[in-house]
Write a structure and sequence with these properties.
Strands 1-2-3-4-5 form a 5-stranded mixed sheet. α6 packs across α8 and α8 runs antiparallel to α9. The chain has 2 domains: about 170 residues, no CATH class; about 200 residues, Nitrilase/N-carbamoyl-D-aminoacid amidohydrolase. With about 375 residues, it is α/β, with parallel strands linked by helices. It contains 14 helices and 9 strands.
Amino acid sequence: MLVTLAVITGAIGWSGNVLALPLAFAFPALWAFSRSRLIAAAVSAAYFLAASRGLPQGVANFYASDIWPGLLLWVAASFSFVVVHATLWTRRSVKGRAVRCLAAALLMGLPPLGIVGWAHPITAAGAVFAGWGWWGLLAAAAGLLAMTTRWWPAAAVTLTGFWLWSAATWTPPSLPEGWKGVDLELGQSLGRDTSLNRHRDLIATVRGAVGEGAQVVVLPESTLGFWTPTVERFWRDQLRGNAVTVIAGAAVVEPGGYDNVMIAVSADGGSVLYRERMPVPVSMWQPWRSWLRESGGARAHFFANPVVDFEGKMIAPLICYEQLIVWPIAQSMLDAPDVIVAAGNGWWTAGTSIVAIQKASTEAWARLFDVPLVFAFNI
């Protein structure tokens, strides 16, 4: 029964609908009231695997392979979550369960284990306590801990009440005035097709957004391909006469690897605005290369540049994978940003709900802190 409920909680809570996220609050109760460590491990695996069910298909799409490598990576990714929750499970007192639940939440929210800390229940805070900021995060944490105690029915009723009120009054995060996020449907060619014709097409898209009143146009991850002086000069020349700044994804080659970045470019020039803190493990971030004295892979900047100054505004950039885990957005919120800019390149997620989950997670955080949000995705 508990395992079945964990599957339902993970599958529906992480379906890509932001208002379904609060179902994740049920997980601590299912885990805490398991009758043995083995059942606690099974409940944890059922929840995590159901929540991340799009990974096998996504891996198969990315590597153009069959489903088996994706299934192996899916199971491997769940290892940390299952081991942490199985190890910390206890039959002890109410206080003991709550303390261990808090420990598990912290371990799965922060590096190194937080690197694969998907489906973290605290993400639902914004869908229950929209606009409450850090107080809402504390209230959500208290609710999660209460779900592991004998008072869980009262906690569930209270959380459900706030959830229903939030759903009844829900409004999506606002879009900053003069900003426009542009979604593209260029598939895996984005960032790989570096021809002048592709760049001209992208600039035509920017000009179309300018015609609609945009002063800042956000384009998806990888849009510009490799950022070089030649690409900068071309964009700078093409934007001359347009009072617009473009924020777009690109890659900057560095000794030993590359940085996945966001670039800010206008008629006055371009520069790196943000370097990704946590690239996608395995497909992008490959730390074992340095251990083997090999080059390649994206560099992880972990706690660097949580917010950046852009034309007098403090913005919190999030690239793709960073939208699925806790610490990048939580760290950015410590600096009270004016705007969240969320970009992604999700062509490889075809047939899954991964992009919808990324957007729901980011929207929940934006609503929790009442921060304007700009999305730009390629599919």
